[in-house]
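[09:14] KT: can someone run the structure on this one? pasting the chain below
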Amino acid sequence: METAQLLVMLVFLIYFSVSFVYSVLNFVSKEEINAIKQLKKENVKMELEIEQMALRHQLENFKMDND
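[09:31] RB: done, structure tokens below
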């Protein structure tokens, strides 16, 4: 009887340990996904700024050529 109780307690301990580790890893992966999304947004903003600067430069050159 005591062996069965120890076995049940061991199974529950293993189950809860695995569940806890899984939840921690899942949380970390969600944080990493959010960080990657933020970096992608910043990258898009930088690309748009660079494109805007290039268009301004082209417009200035066009104005200078027509003057």
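[09:33] KT: thanks! The chain has a mean pLDDT of 91.
[09:34] RB: yep, looked fine to me
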